[in-house]
């Protein structure tokens, strides 16, 4: 009997009170059970929230530089464990090993970066309009956070949320995706070993419906940070709106790369392959649309199809693998349904389009890199987030039309343009309505020191990552202090000549 992956509540590793479990499965080999995980009952969640609430005062009063030092220690431990954690990411989530290692690296970067915030967390001091009076704004923690995280970056995204939440003085209950519960558990073990005090960081396992929703709307929670699907995020936004609960949500994308007639095509192909099929297309920043200038359309399509057809599918632990499996059966079916919808909708399928079942891959959830061309920008496959290895190529007659196509979806996370012309890149930079714009680079690969998130239905509330304008705004609230040391009543706006 495998060891049960437990909840972490008030500094103790405990099984859920109803004794139920679920399995976390290796998507490359369904017979490989990565972990048997405890399922949380409502009472477990109540206890986790109580623990976080109980630990809040002391943690929030600990000087921020000390909180930051704990994050530095977590960063060091994460670096030391990078290899084993990266392998676990690949085994539990499926992405190829270099990406599994990158997932851990992103958490290392975030822990160091936010550790430094322990000595900054700065507000403003400004002059007062009255003599003998000073004025400043300070950042204060918000309270107890519910963090709800997805499976596609099983170490990085929980770390994106835990690190700023903790350095700012909040306490946390983390509910990770069921599909990557073991990764989240190892991550929390690292924070425990780094010295996070009892009750400050709690972990509860279970499904979004049973655990996530109950946790997000729990009366003991002050704010929610969610990353995941648009449907779930918008549902939570609705629930939180009704109870005046702060929520920041980072949701879908339908990201696009524009390839202009003067682009360096080999570079654009490489970027589009990386953006479209890296992480098997399961990034919210994935380049699922390529908007190609008509003058280079036939040549680009031939080159891109050639490169995509050379990609090797397989277990991400193998050095020869370029593209791993998709995460689970329901995503597998959903992606295949989208491919059917693309065919029925009139897009031309020129590569892939079906499950890949050669050799060992028959045991996992593999889908061939899939390419549709002559796609109409209004088709479902060009509008909805597929979150799989499916790329749509759309033709455009000029930059203006290309930008309209890129902006013509409900999402606005990431976009890119390949061009050698500085003026065209400047126009794109100005007019692309996405949270992130890349020039001569793919849509994926945001760095943690800048805000991450998007416009329209991609997100709500302050951005992830980064400092000011990003995570610090999500995990702190402002307090303004006026101190009058004049010894008399002074009236702002009124006492003037
Ligand atoms: C996500 O897909 O949810 O920019 C996050 C990137 C990564 C993060 C992606 N650094 O692609």
Characterization of this structure:
- It is a single chain.
- With 497 residues, the chain is α/β, with parallel strands linked by helices.
- The protein folds into two domains: 3-251 and 458-481, Aldehyde Dehydrogenase, Chain A, domain 1, CATH 3.40.605; 256-439, Aldehyde Dehydrogenase, Chain A, domain 2, CATH 3.40.309.
- It has 15 helices and 23 strands.
- The chain has helices spanning 42-61, 64-80, 82-93, 97-117, 156-167, 181-194, 208-216, 230-242, 265-277, 297-309, 329-345, 380-383, 399-407, 422-431, 471-475; strands spanning 4-5, 7-9, 12-14, 21-25, 33-38, 124-127, 133-141, 144-148, 171-175, 201-203, 223-227, 246-250, 255-259, 287-293, 348-351, 370-373, 390-396, 411-412, 414-418, 436-439, 455-456, 459-460, 476-484.
- The strands form six sheets. The chain has a seven-stranded mixed sheet, with helices on both faces.
- β13, α9 (265-277) and β14 form a beta-alpha-beta unit.
- α2 (64-80) runs antiparallel to α4 and α4 packs parallel to α5.
- The longest helix is centred in the N-terminal third of the chain and has 21 residues, at 97-117.
- It is globular.
- The protein starts with a strand and ends in a 13-residue tail after the last strand.
- The model has no long low-confidence stretch (mean pLDDT 97).
- It binds 2-aminohexanedioic acid.
